[in-house]
Amino acid sequence: MRGRGALLGIAGIWLATRAAMLWMLVHDFFSSNVVRVEVTATYHNWYNVLVHWTLPHNDIMWQYPPAAAAIFLSPDLLPFLTYFQAFVALTVLCDGVVLLGLIRAARRSDGSMAGALVWLVTLPMMMATPFARYDIQVTLLAVFALLAMRHRPKAAGVIAGIGAMVKVWPLLTLLGTPRGKSTRDAVVAAVLSAAGLLAVFALLFKDTLGFLGNQGDRGVQIESLGGSALMAARLVDLWPGKVNFQYGAFEYVGPYVSTIARASLGLTVVGFLLLLLWRVKANRWSSATPFDAALCAIMVFTVTSRVISPQYMIWLLGLAAVCLTSKNTTQRPIAWLLVAANALTTLIFPICYGSDILTNSTLGTVLLCTRNGLLLYATVWSGVRLWKATVLPKSLPQQAREAELRAPQAV
């Protein structure tokens, strides 16, 4: 009965919080009109192009792999609703499916309800934003790829491959796949599913790879790590640049911007080389290692990006929730840092975006630099904890080494 009561309580909280998020979305609550425009204008405009069997490659804001088209066309599944209503309804449905997957994962022998509770509580902290972006759908693919990893690596690979054709980053969920047959099965399945999906969209749509040029031309968004450095320099009159709206985001233009953009790409490369080094060196896997490695990889991808849009927190919170479904995770403190970063993100967008972030006020600069500093710290600490838990020193005596390998992993 206690278990049933807990599930009823979770259902009640989900209904109440999601109703509040929907209310904020349809009313002008903290500039929700700015949040809604992504669906009502951008996504709807893409839909009007996609229904003619061509991708909107001439639109510089189109920066997504071809299978993203399926999500922007998905409101056709609910023809009795407007485009906006149908898109939001399907996004809420995906949110509920993610929660159900996390609850089911908690039933495993090493399972914990902490992951489901984190997803349940932290998503509403973002107010209306999650329901007016397509990142919940992408996060659903990444979450289910990870949850399938333990017993169905081929299925996990298929889901990750589909995710890669929707928004690239879900492919990184395969980084921590246990060595051997599981890795081979997952990687082959991911490659085949991604290639097959790409072939289908190449047959159905024109210019399926046109998004690559638009993505490569992006500059330094003001909310990125590099952007916060420029913001701080601009506040104290050490940098004379300005803000322009381009490529669907507010970006900095001026001296040193191209250098910072290249440095961001360089940091991304360095980060993934370190992740590959971890993959080679790791010699101890627990049931949570695939989850922990995926979170660390996505944090590296996010923090070193030239763009840290508010909805990127949905990815991080979703993967942190997956980590917390296992009692063996090393990422528990990282998850709480992400919860704090999520609260700051909501202050940045939408609450203070127009009044403080775009105007480069002292408050806006402090908020953004604090949030990005917290994300950077969490990323480094995530990698350190992952390394310490999975890379055993070769100098350990053989018997001690075998005992370490047999022992449960410390949380």
Automatic annotation (TrEMBL):
Key word Nuclease present: no
InterPro entries listed in its UniProt record: GT87
Gene Ontology terms for molecular function: hexosyltransferase activity
Membrane topology: Multi-pass membrane protein
Cellular component aspect of the GO annotation: plasma membrane
Signal peptide: none
Identification of the protein by name: Membrane protein
